[in-house]
Automatic annotation (TrEMBL):
Cofactor(s) this protein requires: Zn(2+)
Protein name as it appears in the record: Cysteine--tRNA ligase, cytoplasmic
Source organism of the structure: Astyanax mexicanus (Blind cave fish)
Keywords: Aminoacyl-tRNA synthetase, ATP-binding, Ligase, Metal-binding, Nucleotide-binding, Protein biosynthesis, Zinc
GO cellular component: cytoplasm
UniProt xrefs under CDD domains: CysRS_core (cd00672), GST_C_CysRS_N (cd10310)
GO molecular function, one term: ATP binding
GO biological process: cysteinyl-tRNA aminoacylation
Lineage: Eukaryota, Metazoa, Chordata, Craniata, Vertebrata
Keyword Nucleotide-binding assigned: yes
InterPro entries, per the entry: Cys-tRNA-ligase, Cys-tRNA/MSH_ligase, Glutathione-S-Trfase_C_sf, Rossmann-like_a/b/a_fold, tRNA-synt_1_cat_dom, tRNAsynth_Ia_anticodon-bd
Length: 729
């Protein structure tokens, strides 16, 4: 500030102090105050400290006097600061099928991750092979979003136009028509015998051992059902109608295949081909919801993207990488591979020329001799297929037709995600030819060589060591699996294995998951019980002794180990083992404290339980807002069920303990036995475990299913007690 008094030498010092005091009385000059040159000059004009009656001037004088050494360069200064050396922080690496090695994950645009996942071909029930891919990708997606904090945009397709769908839709339609005609037992017998002839030829020509075994099982089942019907018809037995239905059921696959070969070309109504995938898509979504798999941000259906697919094919032709033949359009693999900057079969180059794989990729309806002869090379694949009689069709520049399988994903993903995505996911068996063909046609369309940056492929799923396949009729549906195990148990089984390796779905696998769940659940219940111990707000903060310091050190070491595991290709198997080890150490700490008759440290155990719960939420194994542990109750029940029921459990626990105390004092063994029945038989059936402690206290660990039975148990116990006392005991 600027001072406004007369600076002449004959002005008395007192007048200077008075004027200064008056000026400072309405100014702030201490809080956050830094001296100016005007302060220094005014300070020199004063002969000494102002009189005490000039309080503001006196405070200012003392403040400036204290700052003068700093103003003159004489103040003490802070010593130099040395930053810590620190340690290298692990960075996320993902196994990239394009390089067959773990690569540092670097999104193309900051924190945003564009992700496309190949969805199901919906023509039958979803099975555990689907669960293998979609649960695994759900786990990876959740970890990228919720742990590594990436902004993930997830797109998935539904294939509702495909050779398998077309054939299955026709077969179902023709079999329904066949049943509706109510053929006689003799007619069914004759038709099945006729259908067996081409089936036997197919069986004899099949060389794949798994497929041959499947066909042999079907042949045996049909033959077994034929004999009783033949006998019933010859003897005119009354059970011929029953035997007819048995044969019709056993031979439905064989019969529908024969009907399709005879009359499939007459099925021309497009709606017939849309009803089947629409139904199974609905069932798929229900299964994913039951498995707690997050829905995609964008879902694309092939039937809704036919115009985009046509445009996609046109541009590939314009770029010189395709050719038209008899109304179909094919991709020229040789020309693409010879072009500068392009390479065909990036994922599995050693599979080029594998005619079996290539024909499976083209589809059963697209590998006839006339279709194969349309290609310049057997390695070329269809972008657009001219529709034959009995197939759905859409208009195109090349005539009526339908999309090829591989082009569907390219056009849909390109429409939503653009010329390049960060992650493309799918099952291991899709690498060649499906994903290699996707890559080729997409890079031909966009004229780049980086349509996908990271290709992630989930491992196979086997059933007790045997290959699982829908086409081989060797599969377990998701609904069947959920009838035996919970969604959490299935997810834990997947978490306990590497997402990219083969997973064997067996009793041993599931038992390991169940035991892991029990181990973790027991820890959560114990921590909740400890936290229920009454204390005031200050009593929850307890002094840390050496045991707490050691457990906390281990806690942070385990968190670091979990982080390292997740950075290493999202290794959930190792992460879960580190979490298990942390719980083991926590259990040992609790046991040691109880052995010494000391209470465990509440805040430390609560922190550990919160961390583990958060990790399970990140993995998708816990839904809801429960702060600690697995939610109590069945699906759809309130997540607060435990907190709602626990007061009633405590009342029952206190009542039981009171009864036990009286029974012990009066030596009424029958009542003690009834108390044990409540603890050992009744409450466990309700999902509640009551534990008697040595000091006489009881703790209740609630996983309650039916609250009403708790009241019934309490009432029964009380009545028994009254009856015993009335009898004079």
């Amino acid at each position: 500030f600027i001072y406004s008094w007369d600076n002449t030498e004959d002005i008395e010092d007192a007048r200077r102090a008075e004027a200064l005091n008056e000026y400072l009385s309405c100014r702030s000059y201490l809080a956050g105050y830094g001296p100016t040159q005007a302060d220094a000059e005014a300070f020199k004009l004063l002969c000494g400290p102002p009189n005490q009656r000039h309080a503001h001037a006196l405070r200012w004088y003392r403040h400036i006097a204290a700052l003068l050494p700093q103003m003159n360069g004489q103040a003490r200064v802070q010593p130099p600061w040395s930053p810590p050396d620190g340690t290298e922080i692990p960075k996320l690496k993902l196994y990239n099928s394009l390089t067959r090695t773990k690569e540092l994950f670097v999104p193309q645009r900051g924190n945003r991750v564009l992700w496309y996942c190949c969805g199901p071909t919906v023509y039958d029930a979803s099975h555990m092979g689907h669960a293998r891919s979609y649960i695994s990708f759900d786990i990876l997606r959740r970890i990228l979003m919720n742990y590594f904090k990436y902004d993930v945009f997830y797109c998935m397709n539904i294939t509702d136009i495909d050779d398998k769908i077309i054939k299955r839709a026709r077969q179902n339609h023709l079999l329904v028509q066949y049943r509706a005609k109510k053929p006689s037992a003799s007619q069914i017998l004759q038709d099945v015998l006729t259908a067996k002839q081409p089936f036997q030829v197919k069986l004899a020509e099949t060389t794949d051992p798994d497929k041959k075994q499947m066909l042999e099982r079907l042949d045996t089942a049909v033959t077994t059902a034929l004999t009783p019907l033949q006998g019933a018809i010859q003897s005119k037995a009354p059970d011929a109608a029953i035997q007819k239905q048995v044969l019709l059921e056993e031979a439905k696959d064989l019969l529908s295949d024969w009907l399709d070969s005879q009359f499939g070309s007459q099925v021309t109504e497009n709606s017939i081909f849309s009803l089947l995938p629409k139904y199974w898509e609905g069932e798929y979504h229900k299964d994913m919801d039951a498995l707690n798999v997050l829905p995609a941000d964008v879902l694309t259906r092939v039937s809704e993207y036919v115009p985009e697919i046509v445009e996609f094919v046109k541009k590939i032709l314009d770029n010189g990488y395709g050719y038209e033949s008899n109304g179909s359009v094919y991709f020229d693999t040789a020309k693409f591979d010879a072009s500068s900057g392009h390479s065909y079969a990036k994922l599995v180059p050693e599979a080029v020329g594998d005619q079996k794989a290539l024909q499976e990729g083209e589809g059963d309806l697209s590998i006839s001799a006339d279709r194969l002869s349309e290609k310049h090379s057997q390695n070329d694949f269809a972008l657009w297929k001219a529709s034959k009689p009995g197939e759905p069709s859409w208009e195109s520049p090349w005539g009526k037709g339908r999309p090829g399988w591989h082009i569907e994903c390219s056009a849909m993903a390109g429409s939503i995600l653009g010329e390049s995505m960060d992650i493309h996911g799918g099952g291991f068996d899709l690498r060649f030819p499906h994903h290699d063909n996707e890559l080729a046609q997409s890079e031909a369309y966009f004229e780049n060589n980086h349509w996908v940056r990271y290709f992630l492929h989930t491992g196979h799923l086997t059933i007790a060591g045997c290959k699982m396949s829908k086409s081989l009729k060797n599969f377990i549906t998701i609904k069947d699996a959920l009838a035996k195990h919970t969604a959490r148990q299935l997810r834990l089984a997947f978490l306990m294995h590497s997402w990219k390796d083969t997973l064997d779905y067996s009793n041993n696998t599931m038992e390991s998951a169940i035991q892991y769940e029990k181990f973790m659940s027991e820890f959560f219940l114990n921590v909740k019980d400890i936290l229920r111990t009454p204390t005031d707000i200050t009593g929850q903060f307890e002094k840390w002794e050496a045991e707490e310091i050691e457990l906390n050190k281990s806690f942070y070491e385990k968190k670091e180990a979990v982080h390292e595991a997740l950075c290493d290709n999202i290794d959930t198997r190792s992460a879960l083992e580190e979490m298990r080890a942390l719980v083991s150490q926590s259990n040992a700490y609790v046991a040691a404290r109880k052995s010494a008759k000391l209470l465990p440290n509440r805040m430390l155990l609560q922190s550990i339980a919160h961390y583990l719960t958060d990790m399970f939420k990140t993995f998708g194994a816990i839904e809801g807002t429960e702060p600690i542990g697995f939610p109590v109750g069945n699906n759809g029940q309130s997540a607060d069920l435990e907190s709602t029921v626990m007061p009633y459990l405590n009342v029952l626990s206190d009542f039981r303990e009171g009864v036990r105390k009286i029974a012990r004092e009066q030596k009424v063994t029958e009542v003690l036995q009834l108390c044990d029945v409540v603890r050992d038989d009744i409450l466990p059936e309700l999902g509640v475990r009551l534990e008697d402690h040595e000091e006489g206290k009881e703790i209740s660990k609630g996983q309650t299913k039916k609250l009403r039975k708790l009241y019934e148990a309490q009432e029964k116990l009380y009545n028994e007690y009254l009856q015993t006392n009335q009898n004079g005991s």
